[in-house]
Each structure stands twice: as C-alpha cells, then as structure tokens.
Amino acid sequence: MNPLHKPPPGKGQDFFIDVIPYNAELGLRYVENDVGTVVFDLPWHENLVGDPETGVIHGGAISGMFDAALGGAVLCKLEELRRIATLDLRIDYLRPARAGQTVRCFAECHRLTKHIAFARATAHDGDPDDLVATAVGTFVVFRDDTRSHPRDHVVNEGVAS
C-alpha cells in the first residue's frame, strides 16, 4: 500500500516538499495529489529571480519545480513506496513567468513499467491556457533496493500519528 495515494489531511507538504531540503528551499507548496498526479506551486520570491531588471523567476527554479512534481507524480503512481531517480528531464520553456506571480505545476505519471516511469507536466502563472513551460521526465524505479528513502520516515511518522 502506498500512503501517498491518499495522504492524511495537512500532511502533503510534509510528504512531498519538506522532506527534500532543496524543494523546501525553493519554497515549493503542495496543493493536491491523487494516484499518479500532483499539483505544486512555486511562489514568486526575490531569491528566485534570474533577471533583476524584469523580476522573472530563474529557469533553474522552474526546472527544480518540474523535477519535484514529476517525481512526486511517479511516487503517487507506485503500488508501494520505492526509491526513484531522475533519468531524463526535458523542459520546453514557452515564455517567461510573469514577475510577482506564482507558478502552478500539474504533473502526471502516464506510464509505469517494472523499472521505468514516464511523466509529463505543465506550468502556468495564472492562466492554464497560457503555459509558461511543459516538461517530460523519465525515472528509474528501484525494485530490489532495501535502503530507506527520506520520505519513508516522514510517511511512516505521519501515518502513525
């Protein structure tokens, strides 16, 4: 059983974002998830700006958001929690995000094989019909590794409480 399919109310931020220091440092915010899908927000913050003249969020922050969301979608698709790792991440930047605007990312895992997962995502800054970027990712799923993942500790503590 995968506790990420239906996390307890109020635990999504802990399970998906705060357990990974980089995701927390980016300021990612958990919005919602379902089996195989997640929605995260990347709120605008001056520390994420790539061009001080325009106030546009740096592409690296958008990339980090996509990697986190795509990986989260894969974790939500699995029957039981497993370690995963990004094999490939492709992002098409369609336009700059508007300065001062939160970027919302919807990600879904659309194909899961024994060892590989395929996911895709979109991001916008207020209008889902006016995308900032799209992404596709490929992830390895570790099936025989017994080492625990940082998420396991948070999930297990969250389910017990």
UniProtKB/TrEMBL annotation:
One of its GO terms (molecular function) is 1,4-dihydroxy-2-naphthoyl-CoA thioesterase activity. The keyword DNA-binding does not apply. One of its GO terms (cellular component) is cytosol. Signal peptide: none annotated. InterPro entries: HotDog_dom_sf (IPR029069), PAAI_dom (IPR003736), Thioestr_dom (IPR006683). Keywords: Hydrolase. The keyword Chloroplast does not apply. Residues 55-129 form the Thioesterase domain. PANTHER family: 1,4-DIHYDROXY-2-NAPHTHOYL-COA THIOESTERASE 1, BLR7284 PROTEIN. NCBIfam families: unchar_dom_1 (TIGR00369). This is Uncharacterized protein (TIGR00369 family).
